[in-house]
Amino acid sequence: MLDIADYLNGLAMQKYRPAEGENSLPVLKIKELRQGMCDPNSDICSASIKPEYVIQDGDVIFSWSGSLLVDFWCGGTCGLNQHLFKVTSSKYDKWFYYAWTNHHLQRFIAIAADKATTMGHIKREELSKASVLIPSQDDYERIGGLLKPIYDLVISNRIENVRLASLRDELLPQLMTGQIDVTEVEF
């Protein structure tokens, strides 16, 4: 798999705390990846970390330690913590390296469980051993024509869900306290 994608390990973000008055970002840890968003309890880091460690909506994130999972991040801009890989490629499309990482996930989970003494994880060498079949250019384009729109829709729907949940969380208290009156609204 290392032939098709780059797996960038995150930073030990406790070393990158924001200075007084400095802009900050929430830190993407395994907890945030599992819940699909950062929350007020999420740690923060300096916004001046190297750009490659800044995560944006739609990035592929692979948790290689503890709870192994691979997913599209759709929870807003944040900093990549250690124990997570940001998966990218200059050679292949997102749908391709996401699908192959996801394909090998159950095997990675089994490897981590076999090696676990406290918290299971996989090593980079396991990524290098994972086989990937490269289709012909015609098949690559045909498969990509099917998978890319599906993955793009998943990403856009998740981003919209986060936006709507934020709007709900902002409006609901105002509705409950009567700050906003909707009695005259016609549906």
Q: Which structural class best describes the helix and strand composition?
A: alpha+beta
Low-confidence regions: none
CATH C-level: Alpha Beta
Name the average pLDDT: 93
Describe this structure in words.
The longest helix has 41 residues, at 137-177. This protein has 187 residues and is of the alpha+beta class. It is globular, with a radius of gyration of 20 Å. A hairpin with a 5-residue loop joins strand 5 and strand 6 (69-72). The strands form 2 sheets. It has a 4-stranded antiparallel beta sheet with strand order 1-8-5-6. Strands 3-2-7-4 form a 4-stranded mixed beta sheet. Helices cover 40% and strands 16% of the residues. It has helices at 30-35, 94-115, 124-129, 137-177; strands at residues 6-9, 24-28, 44-46, 54-55, 60-63, 69-72, 78-80, 84-88. It contains 4 helices and 8 strands; from the N terminus they run ββαββββββααα. The model has no long low-confidence stretch (mean pLDDT 93).
What does the secondary structure layout of this molecule look like, with pairings?
Layout: E1 6-9, E2 24-28, H1 30-35, E3 44-46, E4 54-55, E5 60-63, E6 69-72, E7 78-80, E8 84-88, H2 94-115, H3 124-129, H4 137-177
Parallel strand pairs: 2-7
Antiparallel strand pairs: 1-8, 2-3, 4-7, 5-6, 5-8
Index terms:
187 residues; alpha+beta; Adenine-n6-DNA-methyltransferase TaqI, Chain A, domain 2; 4-stranded mixed sheet; 8 strands; globular
